[in-house]
Design goal:
about 240 residues, mainly alpha, SRF-like
Length: about 240
């Protein structure tokens, strides 16, 4: 049968207790050494016997260095715990103050909106009116400032657009002028190319424009016919001419 689990309790027999302490102490020191070597851990072990005898073990570092590190860590932990406790206590004390502050602010907002005015006295209402008037003055001042800045910005944009418009108009006039000059330069050459050459009219006798010209031409033709015909004269005229 397997070994039963030993119940942990104080050994009443003094001799047995001393033997057990010696054995377990050696085993504990051995385990501390093993964990420091295997896991590269800093280990410090302190054991006091029943008679008050000290047994200790430390890894490569000295016992004092490990204890100082432990004290710093313990002090930081205690400070953190104390700070958390103080913070929690402070928040517990601050919460009612913040709640009351929120209620006051909400009431002031309702008063500024014209609500819950019945509990206010005459002086409180007067102070509220003065605060509202001062707020309105600041609002109007800020509004006028924004309007002025907006107007100035619009004027700058208008000036910029006007300059761009003038520049575009100038460019347009220059383009129209260049196109007009180019058209004037191209017009003569286009006229010469488009008009065909007409043949010169042949020389023809012009009709006479003199009144009676037709009759004169006819008389001239008749005289020519008369000249071509042989002259027939009576005999007595021939004799007279010959004689």
């Amino acid at each position: 049968m397997g070994r039963g689990r030993v119940q942990l309790k104080r050994i009443e027999n003094k001799i047995s207790r001393q033997v057990t302490f010696s054995k377990r102490r050696s085993g504990l020191l051995k385990k501390a050494h093993e964990i420091s070597v295997l896991c590269d851990a800093e280990v410090a072990l302190i054991v006091f016997s029943t008679k008050g005898k000290l047994f200790e073990y430390s890894s490569d570092s000295s016992m004092e260095t490990i204890l100082e590190r432990y004290e710093r860590y313990s002090f930081a932990e205690r400070q953190l715990v104390a700070t958390d406790s103080e913070t929690q206590g402070g928040w517990c004390m601050e919460f009612p103050k913040l709640t009351a502050r929120v209620e006051v602010l909400q009431r002031n907002i309702r008063n500024f909106m014209g609500e819950d005015l019945d509990p206010l006295s005459f002086r409180e209402l007067q102070n509220l009116e003065q605060q509202i008037d001062a707020g309105l003055k600041r609002i109007r001042t800020r509004k006028n400032q924004l309007m002025h800045e907006s107007v100035m910005e619009l004027q700058k944009k208008e000036k910029s657009l006007q300059e761009q418009n003038n520049l575009l108009a100038k460019k347009l006039k220059e383009n129209e002028k260049n196109m007009s000059e180019q058209a004037h330069q191209e017009q003569p050459s286009l006229g010469l190319l488009s008009l065909p050459q007409q043949p010169m009219p042949s020389t023809l006798p012009l009709p006479s424009l003199t009144i009676g010209g037709a009759f004169q031409e006819r008389a001239a033709d008749e005289d020519a016919v008369v000249q071509t015909r042989p002259t027939l004269m009576p005999p007595w005229m021939l004799r007279h001419v010959n004689g």
